[in-house]
Amino acid sequence: MNILIVTFVVLVSCFGCTLAGEKVNTPKINPLNTTTKTKCKYIEYGQHRHYKYEQYSGALDYIDGKGLRPEVAKAFLEMAEAASNQGITLSVVSGYRSYNDQEYLFEDLRMAKGQTKEERAYVSAPVGYSEHSTARVVDINDVEDRFVDTEAYRWLQNNANKYGFELSFPKGNSQNISFEPWHWRYVGKDGEFKDQFCP
Ligand SMILES: [Zn+2]
Q: What is the pTM of this model?
């Protein structure tokens, strides 16, 4: 009996040891970054930086079944109509994401793919750090690298800024996140929402 109890205690304490070890390896959240936007909090896994975003809880309008803030949906529809007039189809494949949605995309897929947090952070944002949580962001048409070779991407490169959209993660971005030609954030035609994003 005593041996059983001792074994149990050893097992439990080893399990505790493992958890404590993982915590040591978790990157710490820095309270402030060093840019001019002091409100920008971020987390880093290795070289990959993601900024903190609150989870939006206001009204959503839906396009292609994906939720967006009403002003963003309106701007997207205006842009999509202009593209359509030139034979280009733009559709929304991802808009607003709750923290729960992001938990699946970062943590569940990371484990399914056998990736480290650092590897996953290159292509996906940890929970609480996705621009999609703001409902001001659209993924357009196809979230694969091949999107860069489409007419739709070329059209967006030349026209999206007229409708208030900009690429969040261009090549060589300062966050060291993979180039995402499909991921556009709404900063407003006059940049009036630019300060909603970091950096
Ligand atoms: Zn995206």
A: 0.81
| Domains in the chain, CATH or no CATH each | 30-196 (3.30.1380.10)
Residue 165 bridge partners (DSSP): 186
**Helices 70-84 and 151-159: crossing angle, nearest 10°?**
120
Q: How do residues 84-130 score in pLDDT, each as one tens digit?
A: 999 999 999 999 999 999 999 999 999 999 999 999 999 999 999 99
**If you measure from the C-alpha of residue 62 to the centroid of ligand 1, how many angstroms do you get, rounded to a whole number?**
16
- 39 Cα to the center of ligand 1, angstroms: 22
The HSE-up count of residue 19 (CA atoms within 13 Å, CB side) is 6
Calculate how far, in angstroms, residue 140's C-alpha sits from the geometric centre of ligand 1.
Answer: 8
Coil, strand or helix at 43: strand
